[in-house]
Amino acid sequence: MPSPSASRIAYLLLTATALFWGGNAVAGKFAVGHIPPMTLNAVRWTAAFMIILAIGCRTFRRDWPLVRAHAPTLLGLGAIGFSLFNMALYSAAQYTSAVNITIEQAGIPLFVFITNFLLFRTRVAGLQILGFILSIAGVAVVVSGGDLERLAALRINRGDAITLIAVAAYGAYTVALRYKPALDWRSTMIAMTFAAMIASWPFALWEQLSGAGYIPDAAGLAAAAYTAIFPSILSQVFYMRGVDMIGPNRAGLFINLVPVFGTVLAILVLGERLHLFHGVALALVIGGIGLAERGASRASKSGR
């Protein structure tokens, strides 16, 4: 069980992570028409790789034997959690709003809970179950546009469906982080951003050669610069550290703060409208994370 001071540090890191990720969805929507989605993803991870390589090349050389021994794990984590997740996210931004994308990411903890239980029989407290049910109810409200008949008929738009692929990708990544080797964060990030870069460029080249691509403009490159620094480097480091400190189930819940920050940023930056059903969804998400975190804390204290 982490100490109270360690938990507070983890909460701060994970809250900052959610803020930067909320900005990632907004940047993806802002980039529409300025830089193609696959190109944005490839440029983002190339820039992130070059930045982190410049910072940690000496550490990476020192850690190379351990990196090489765990190369399949690190490459898989980078390709799925970094590249696939964001390819889906930026593609979804072509068809749905940034508010929808950010709120729908609250489905990630549900995927984490279910996968941890099925694979590792990780116990979940009653309040955690109630918390993620409330969060998923919030996602359902957004996906349905507040129309229960639409939800019952499973009529969701293309962007919302693609966002669910992103949710599954990042949920799988969160669960698989338990297999990450004990490396210096710089070495870990170099290996994983390299994997993301390599996984991204074939899709970017296909996008350009197929006629769907175009040359990015200054606004598109600015969006890529933001995503390279904040969501790509700072958020990933903060998130991995938070998972290490309080575990994947509790850390994953903080992803539910992404819709809060993302919604505010979408309104301020993009001028998107906040509808009543968005407010209901946010209330459910915020209430869900509060209940689930309280349940996790009680379970930890009782030794369950």
TrEMBL record:
It holds the Pfam family EamA. The chain crosses the membrane at residues 43-61, 73-93, 99-120, 127-146, 158-177, 189-206, 218-239, 251-270, 276-296. It is a multi-pass membrane protein. InterPro entries: AA-Vitamin_Transporters, EamA_dom, EmrE-like. Keywords: Membrane, Transmembrane, Transmembrane helix. It is found in: Membrane. It comes from the Bacteria. GO terms for cellular component: membrane. Residues 9-143, 158-291 form the EamA domain. Belongs to the EamA transporter family. This is DMT family transporter.
